[in-house]
Amino acid sequence: MPIGPAHPGGTGGSLAGGAELSAEQPTQRPSALWRRAAVRERQGDIVGAMDDTREAIRVIEEMRAKLVPLDFMKQGFSVYFHNVYSTLIGLYVRQGQPEKALEAAELARARAFLGRRVNPADFRLQSLALSRR
């Protein structure tokens, strides 16, 4: 199992000095970017932290798009990388950009919803319960 942001003790490849991770380690790239963003934020480089976090989300979205719609890997995929989305939301708030923070929050929320395995019968039961109210 790859080490991701939900597992900050991970030892994913480093991006120090601009070095890129190999294509053989795609799940480690967002984690490494997220960790570098945290370092940049602590150093006061908010713009750099935002750049790294946005790049991590771009990579996550790219990986997610390659998963089969009902693939078991989609279950929990968003949860696995939720800290990346949370970091970006926090950075936007610190920069006084509430609209962008809200957009990032909505993206995270939508991804969490889509990442759940949904049974069509659940929607029918919910619709039935709502119509009886």
Descriptive account of the structure:
By secondary structure, the chain is mainly alpha-helical. It has a single domain, classed as Serine Threonine Protein Phosphatase 5, Tetratricopeptide repeat. Helix content is 62%, strand content 0%. The chain is built from 6 helices and no strands. It has helices at residues 28-42, 46-65, 77-80, 82-94, 98-115, 120-131. Helix 1 (28-42) runs antiparallel to helix 2 (46-65). The model is unreliable at 1-19 (pLDDT under 50).
Number of helices: 6
Give the CA-CA distance, first to last residue. 45 Å
Radius of gyration: 17 Å
Largest sheet: none
Overall pLDDT score: 74
Could you name the key traits of this structure?
133 residues; mainly alpha; Serine Threonine Protein Phosphatase 5, Tetratricopeptide repeat; globular; disordered N terminus
Question: SSE layout and pairings?
Answer:
Blueprint: H1 28-42, H2 46-65, H3 77-80, H4 82-94, H5 98-115, H6 120-131
Helix pairs in contact: 1-2, 1-4, 2-4, 4-5
Brief sketch in words of this structure:
By secondary structure, the chain is mainly alpha-helical.
